[in-house]
Amino acid sequence: MPVEPTGPVVVDVDASEASLSVVDLAAEEAAARAAPLLIVHGYGTGSLHLAAHHDLLDVAVSRALAARPGLSVTAKLIAREPGRALAEHSADACLLVVGHRTAAARRVPSAISVAAQVMLESLCPVIAHVPAVTPRPADKSGPVLLGVTRHSRTEQVVEFAFEEAALRGAPLRAVHVWPDRDDAVRLLDQALGAWPAKYPEVRVTRRVCPGYDVARALCDESRDAQLLVIGRGRYTGRARVMRGLAIQTMLDLSGCPVAVVPHA
């Protein structure tokens, strides 16, 4: 029972070769949801001439249409920094898709990436394309991995994970990281609630990973996954900084794309 999209899938592109892979992912997500695709490009204060920015968008649109000929695709050039251009569309989008540069590829490795910043600010779910350190085969049999937390309200997160699994025809693996196995199993059952019955076509497994390092444990679990789904509450102050660091760690170390879903 997929949820009807309430807006477009929005993707941000830049001048890098890896950006085209992000467009591919966004086109797949839009086609699966029967949603339009909006490709935006924030050019900030870069050195490219305006015509070059338009050329970049033309290439991205052609790429999306070549992969999905029936897809509704539009493009928009925005005089904003890349992350800001994307986040500003989150109020009207059903999904944002963004590329991620790992620590080794960032100019300042310790700085938070554009993808992590967008994930902290977005009002809708965000999927980050994570470049694999080791090329992986095009295997679509892996699960959608759902990270279940102990203290947050996760209804929106669980719904998104089930929807993604249904759209992909994939199983769902719900994971909780905690040293007490019995307590963790109860929490997983409570978090999943009635969603398995609402998505009977999705095969569900539950897994408890003993320990406290949630980010690294989920990244280890992600090696055979199609997508890692986690939640993000409305954090402020130090809690927001800590959540940003956790998201950054998962983006840098994950073996698959990462989705962050905002929740109350």
Description:
The longest helix is centred in the N-terminal third of the chain and has 18 residues, at 50-67. The protein has 264 residues and is an alpha/beta fold. Strands 3-2-1-4-5-10-9-6-7-8 form a ten-stranded mixed sheet, sandwiched between helices. Helices cover 39% and strands 20% of the residues. It has two domains: 9-129, HUPs (Rossmann fold); 144-262, HUPs (Rossmann fold).
Write the layout of secondary structure elements.
Blueprint: E1 9-12, H1 18-33, E2 37-42, H2 50-67, E3 73-78, H3 82-87, E4 95-99, H4 114-121, E5 126-129, E6 144-147, H5 155-168, E7 172-177, H6 181-192, H7 195-198, E8 204-209, H8 214-221, E9 227-232, H9 237-253, E10 258-262
Parallel strand pairs: 1-2, 1-4, 2-3, 4-5, 6-7, 6-9, 7-8, 9-10
Antiparallel strand pairs: 5-10
Short structural description:
With 264 residues, the chain is α/β, with parallel strands linked by helices.
